[in-house]
Please model this.
Amino acid sequence: MSGAPTRRVVLALLRYSALVLVATLLLLPIYWLVVASFRPAADIFATSSSFGLATLLPERLTLEHWREAWSGELPHAVANSLFVALSTVALGVTVNSLAGFAFAVFEFPFKRLLFAIVLATFMMPFESIVIPLYVLIRGMGLTDTFAALILPEVASGLVVFLFRQFFAAVPKELYEAARVDGASWLQIWWKLTLPLSGPTIATASLMLFVHQWDAFFWPLVAAPGPERVVIQVAVARNVTLEVANWGGLFAAASTAILVALVPFLLLQRFYLRTVAAASER
Model:
């Protein structure tokens, strides 16, 4: 009898040891990046040829790269990215939840076909629609505006799918009872189903925020001006064909990682719960 608990303990230790090893391997490059942003420029790659304790623990530290980064366009880029990402979250949760509600509750012609098209949109590489999207944005006179950065990213097929899966799981008796009480469909969506979908809202918000925060190619094409520069473009500007400011690059990249880490740490449990629930329905 004592062999079974011992075996479970050993298997648990092996499992957690493997998880710790994988986590260490994944986090080690990020740790090196952050540490390198505090090294003097001459020390950044001095120990990179041979991995050792000196690679992980710097002998000298400096705030020069961080002061340089934050005295330039980085604060403006962070503010722009936060505005774009949070605006996309607010609009995206509203639009995608309404679409998911419609697909879950209503019956209309070509419903299955339209839902399949919605699902296909998040499987399509964004680069394949950049040219027609840019032509559309230019034709609307929105080039180099915040609207050009926000509007194309509001609708998300994956977020529509998550909301649809949640609303479809709500018992139809609740919808029928609300309709009998005289509630409109918008009232049912706003007062009944949306308050119940807290984990889905958190997951959708996290996905939309991170997607916009990581955006590089589309902001570079649609809003190349300095007034609308976003964080990823500001990070990339530390490297040119002539020179590479590695210290500034690492400081800016560390800022981008740390800011994006905050909502992920706050909402990760809702993200895992919603994705797991959606996959089971």
